[in-house]
Amino acid sequence: MRVTPYLFFNGDCEAAFTRYQEVLGGHVMAMMRHAGSPAEEQVPVAWKDKILHACLEVDGLHIMGSDAPPGRFEQPQGFSVNLMMRSVEEAERVFAGLSEGATITMPLQKTFWAERFGMLTDRFGIPWMVNLSPEDCTP
C-alpha cells in the first residue's frame, strides 16, 4: 500500500505542478486536461484547458492533483504535505522555493526535535511542512 496526497486547486493546478517540479525535482508524469477527455462535456468551455489529473513523481513517490470543478473548490485545511529532507541544504532550498508568494507559518529553523523544520502555505493554497530530523541528516 502507498499513501499519495491528491491536491485540489482553484484553476491553477498546472502552474502549481510546474512549480513543484522546479522546486522538488522529479518529473510530471501526467498533465491531463478536460479537453479531449470524457469529462470535457461536463465543464464550461472556459474550463476545458484546466487540469483533470496531474501526477508528479519525486524519488519514486507521487503527488497527484487536479483543478476542482467550477464551484466545488474548498480552501485546503486540516492537513499539511510533509517533506522529509536529506540535508540542511536541501531543506533550505526547498523551503525557499515553496516560500515564494507563500504565507510562512513557522520559519525554517533548528528545533528541539529537528535539525530544520518549517511550515508554510504556498501561493497555491497548499500547506507544507519541511522537516529534517536528526536521524535523517547525512554526514
TrEMBL record:
SUPFAM superfamilies: Glyoxalase/Bleomycin resistance protein/Dihydroxybiphenyl dioxygenase. Residues 2-130 form the PhnB-like domain. CDD domains: PhnB_like. It comes from the Bacteria. Transmembrane segments: none annotated. Pfam families: 3-dmu-9_3-mt. Gene3D superfamilies: 2,3-Dihydroxybiphenyl 1,2-Dioxygenase, domain 1. This is PhnB-like domain-containing protein. It comes from Teichococcus deserti. The lineage of its organism: Bacteria, Pseudomonadati, Pseudomonadota, Alphaproteobacteria, Acetobacterales.
